[in-house]
């Protein structure tokens, strides 16, 4: 069965390469820009405001040259802020010390939105809902940080502090933060990734026994945890649309919803952890209920992988969109890894083959790439491939017919050609392994 699927997907890719001369008019082409631990922006120790601005603009211009039409920027990496927030302190990754504002003062979020929109890029505000202290004992934590004011809302696990998803007051805090962002800023989307309940650590249980005992609601612990996450997703969906009905809500989950040996609806994969069973994120329910507008599963494996093959997962996800948009998370950062498991990512054809394959599925509307600074080193010539081939023709972000138009935008039009490519500077750092 696996061989048949692999053969079928390869044939589809070949048919695509011969049968489709031009890239699609509508295609999501997004890039994640991670701020946690200074992965993409700003550079570590780069606290000069003019330098921060210049570097962000340089990255945007690179992505425009590469044919992108959206950026997904991390603006709340650890219950902190890359904007003046009435709730949370300035991020340590912006100024070096949590709670310290930039000098001279500026609003990085407003700046990033304006510069993105100038270039025709959608701006998706990426927020981590539950992470509060990225590295216990090492991170800079301001005196007014919510973990100091309400320590009873939080739990420690694996050297990181998280909101207890079962704590309703903590949920309300997150809801207030997101309502504030949506109401004050002209963002195109609210975006969350795969960090709901944390990834399991072998031999260690997430310490929420007291919270569960306090209010089990007649559920077993696994269903109770999923209910907690469902609750905040449904509330955020309401808050976003109640505040600005045109703002999208997207989730970028781990690449496997559930393995087939656990559920006949699951994918024929053998992932060690899954959204449903380990992160307690029932992505399919959120799609079915219409709580989210798009899903961007992180398919950071190569084609032909023994346990979680790209072609297997893309086929599975294409059948589970429930009428919402599907963008595929592409792990281009893996080309810079040096581990034996990343050997397949040294193949220059890996990414092109993945793009060709996803374009054969009408229920898949594009890609999101992790992450921004990877493209600065032009791994395997992929920046060239996007500029000169796969994204040489501009594309519009696919419209969502269930949402009203953004009153702050006119009718989107395409330029006739992409901007001219220029030499990309090579004096950059490589991204941290994995997605933050």
TrEMBL record:
Keywords: Lipoprotein, Signal
UniProt domain Glycosyl hydrolase-like: residue ranges: 27-337
Residues in the signal sequence: 1-21
Domain of life: Bacteria
A Pfam family reported for this protein in Swiss-Prot or TrEMBL: GHL10
SUPFAM superfamilies: (Trans)glycosidases (SSF51445)
Name this protein carries in UniProt: Uncharacterized lipoprotein YddW, UPF0748 family
Organism: Flavisolibacter ginsengisoli DSM 18119
